Amino acid sequence: MTGPGSRAWFEGYLAAFNACDYDGFGAYYADNVSFHGQAAKLSGRDAVVRFYREVHGRLDERIDLLGYVGSPSLAAAEIRTTLIARKDWPDFPTGSFVKGDRRQSINFAFYDIANGLFTRIRSARFARL
Known about the structure:
Blueprint lengths: L6 H12 L3 H5 L2 E8 L4 E3 L1 H14 E12 L3 E12 L16 E13 L2 E12 L1
């Protein structure tokens, strides 16, 4: 399968995310995307992109794909998230960061897809490494 929901399509999303290409990964979100993450619950493409701009202003973040199953309407991914603090962030929603701190976790993420765009994203931590 190629196109929305395919592994290659999703890898394009992750490549844009890891490059902090906000226009690139933001183009995968529907205008009214609903985002339910560990650090935030957000509504709308602009809110999600703004959230990641703030996060990436303080933390280096990398997402590595460990497993993926997708269709044009739904995708499920097992991902490894690595966060490295570039600045102190005492009130980060999932726990305080001190400059230089490094955290890794394995997470499951589910993506509802319509018309080639994410309409809902839900993630949960499986394990902290």
